[in-house]
Task: inverse folding
């Protein structure tokens, strides 16, 4: 496993947010709010398997969801 840093930025205001890696909930909070001084609502890391990963961000309080994909390219030594 490796770790992936996630930063939720602008636009959150007391929102209920869940972040999934596959079927697993990697982060969940019912009060995510952006701090206007720094433009960040939440920072966290999630354990992810090697290779391509899809994170699903769900904002239940606004009935929104989106996928973010991370491609990982492995370089093998000769």
Result:
């Amino acid at each position: 496993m490796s770790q992936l840093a996630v930063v939720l930025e602008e636009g959150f205001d007391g929102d209920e947010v869940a972040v999934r890696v596959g079927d697993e909930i990697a982060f969940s909070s019912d009060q995510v709010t952006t701090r206007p001084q720094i433009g960040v609502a939440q920072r966290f890391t999630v354990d992810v398997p090697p290779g391509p990963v899809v994170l699903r961000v769900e904002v239940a309080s606004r009935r929104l969801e989106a996928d973010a994909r991370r491609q990982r390219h492995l370089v093998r030594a000769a």
